[in-house]
Design a protein that fits this description.
It is a single chain. By secondary structure, the protein is an alpha/beta fold. It has two domains: about 120 residues, Aspartate Aminotransferase, domain 1; about 250 residues, Type I PLP-dependent aspartate aminotransferase-like (Major domain) (Aspartate Aminotransferase, domain 2), CATH 3.40.640.10. Helices cover about 40% and strands about 15% of the residues. The strands form two sheets. Strands 2-8-7-6-5-3-4 form a seven-stranded mixed β-sheet, sandwiched between helices. Helix 4 crosses helix 11 and helix 13 packs parallel to helix 15. The longest helix is centred in the C-terminal third of the chain and has 20 residues. The structure holds pyridoxal-5'-phosphate. The site of pyridoxal-5'-phosphate (PLP) has 12 residues, from helix 4.
Length: about 400
């Protein structure tokens, strides 16, 4: 039996790593897939659809407004553009040429990461503060509030914050300093769901804009995300993403989200036009968000725990002397249980890299989190597995490790 990918000539894989972009994310729930399918059969006014999205996103996040984007990365790009231009159509039309505009984003050096290119794509310069001593294991500080204060000036469009459980200084402190200095805080919370409480948390802590990924654990379309926060900034972000081929007189933007009176003209195709979000993505993300918000963390964890225990049980049942499997209930505060595999024994050393190679070179290919392969430690996540993947993974480990 073949699937759509195989018919196209692209082999599918078993994804025991998690919703990684390079593996196509996860497995979409029926309710979300059905809503997307239904959306394909109609046309709709896109600004009105984003205004409807805004009501739903505001409700679940506690923010003033929100829009669906084509990913958290797109949300960061649009959010940066919004912080630079505000509701000034002339400035929107000039991006990424920032001559005469605010052109700096202050970022804590220890929070620099590969995704912050989305900010630079708008043309801004990242002004780094602090020294990531904590990451080096040699110190106790990353960046001080005083260093952030020092770096913020006339050219500062925003302060960027990567929301990770270990992030310091705390978002509440950074946000209150930012507001004292009159600049917004843009938060990257792409991978911070679950826990459910994080939907509201960063807004409650003072963030002006928060970007979440829709294609990770909330189970939306892989190419989706959401951006929520201050209404004027969300509107500025949306205006730089939409197709706005209207004359000013004929233009009728949804008043709940966009204040037409505050704009001196209709912006041209904006810097975010390349982040177009289709109606199917919007409907899919909103459905996923509602499904996600409906389920308690405990129920979600229990669902994954069951799958993780089945997988760990089958792996342990291989009774290979070179394999020990155990479920770790909550390795990172997200509540997503994982299976930790310890390869090798005192008598027989097993190189994790060889096992990874074996997993990848079989059919179907199996991807797991390499974690610390040299020490024989691999991590398997239940989050993107199909039911029949579980026995298939155990069987492959049995073949590779030569167990019965
Ligand atoms: C995944 C991720 C992103 C990108 O999210 P997409 O929805 O794939 O665009 C950005 N920042 C961080 C920290 C991430 O983990």
């Amino acid at each position: 039996m073949t699937n759509v990918f195989e018919r196209l000539g692209a082999a599918t894989l078993i994804n025991a790593y998690g919703p990684m972009t390079r593996f196509g994310g996860g497995i979409m729930g029926e309710e979300v897939a059905a809503a997307m399918r239904e959306a394909t059969q109609y046309c709709v006014d896109m600004p009105a659809l984003q205004a409807a999205a805004s009501r739903i996103i505001a409700d679940v996040t506690g923010a003033e407004a929100g829009i669906v984007t084509s990913g958290a990365s797109a949300g960061l790009l649009l959010g940066t553009a919004a912080c630079v231009t505000g509701l000034d159509a002339a400035k929107m039309n000039r991006l990424p040429d920032l001559t005469g505009m605010k052109n700096e984003i202050v970022v804590m050096r220890g929070q620099r990461n590969s995704y912050d290119r989305a900010l630079r794509a708008v043309g801004v310069t990242l002004v780094e503060v602090g020294v990531s001593d904590r990451a080096n294991g040699t110190g106790i500080r990353d960046a001080d509030l005083s260093e952030i204060r020092e770096a913020v000036g006339e050219r500062t469009a925003a302060i960027f914050y990567l929301a990770k459980p270990q992030a310091l200084p705390r978002l509440t402190e950074v946000a209150s300093l930012a507001h004292e200095l009159g600049v917004p805080v843009l938060v990257d919370a792409a991978a911070e769901l679950p826990p459910l409480a994080n939907l509201k948390r960063f807004i409650a802590e003072g963030a002006d804009l928060v970007a979440f990924s829709g294609g990770k654990m909330i189970g939306g379309p892989q190419g989706s995300g959401l951006l929520c926060g201050r209404r004027d900034l969300v509107a500025a972000a949306l205006l730089q993403q939409l197709d706005l081929d209207y004359t000013y007189d004929e233009w009728n933007p949804p008043p709940a989200l966009i204040d037409k009176q505050r704009l001196q003209g209709v912006p041209r195709h904006g810097v975010g036009r390349s982040c177009k979000t289709g109606k199917e993505q919007i409907v899919g993300l909103l459905t996923a968000l509602q499904v996600f918000a409906r389920e308690s963390d405990r129920d979600r964890e229990a669902r994954w725990q069951t799958l993780a225990e089945r997988l760990a049980g089958l792996l342990q049942g291989l009774s290979s002397p070179s394999l020990a499997a155990r479920v770790i209930a909550d390795p990172d505060g997200s509540g997503i249980p994982v299976v930790e595999l310890r390869l090798g024994s005192a008598r027989r050393h097993v190189n994790g890299r060889e096992v990874l190679h074996g997993l990848r070179s079989g059919s179907p290919r199996i991807e797991v989190n390499p974690w610390r392969p040299e020490e024989g430690l691999l991590i398997l996540s239940p989050a993107c597995l199909r039911e029949d993947d579980v026995p298939a993974i155990a069987k492959r480990f049995g073949e590779i490790l030569g167990a019965s």
